[in-house]
Every structure is written in C-alpha cells, then in structure tokens.
Amino acid sequence: MQKCLVAVATILSIAAPQAAMADTFWLLIAGRNDGLRNAGISHGWKIPMNSMEQCEAAGLKVMGDTGIHGRIFSNLRYICITGK
What we know:
Elements: H1 2-14, E1 24-33, E2 41-49, H2 52-64, E3 75-83
C-alpha cells in the first residue's frame, strides 16, 4: 500500500495546476476497495488546504471516519505535501 500511495502522490503532484502558488498545501488521499463487486479498484483525491495543520487535521478526520475508512475502503491512506 505504501508503494501505491507514493505512486498516487507522484501522479497527483505532476497533475497539480501550474498557476497555483508555491505555498499551497495538498491533502492527497488514496483508497482501495477490496470488495467483491469492485474487485480492488483504487481511488485518489487531491484537496487544496490553507496550512499544513489544516491538512493534517483533515487527513486524521478522514482516517477516523468509520463510514469511509473500513466501510467503503478497506485500505485508506493520506499524506500532506507542499506544492505549486
């Protein structure tokens, strides 16, 4: 899963808008649904944040949400990065 998160983070950082400011913080979330119906489909999201503290708080909130982590996605990870 760690390799998957690094790959998603790399892809999403390349796809980030070029016009954004250098002090933009991004919450990157990667999830994998291992259910029978979706048979291992991975999903990724990038969400702009105002600060690293806000990003970490949002990431922890997503990880603690049992409706998302555990019910919809069996594997869910996040990382906060600074980017353009």
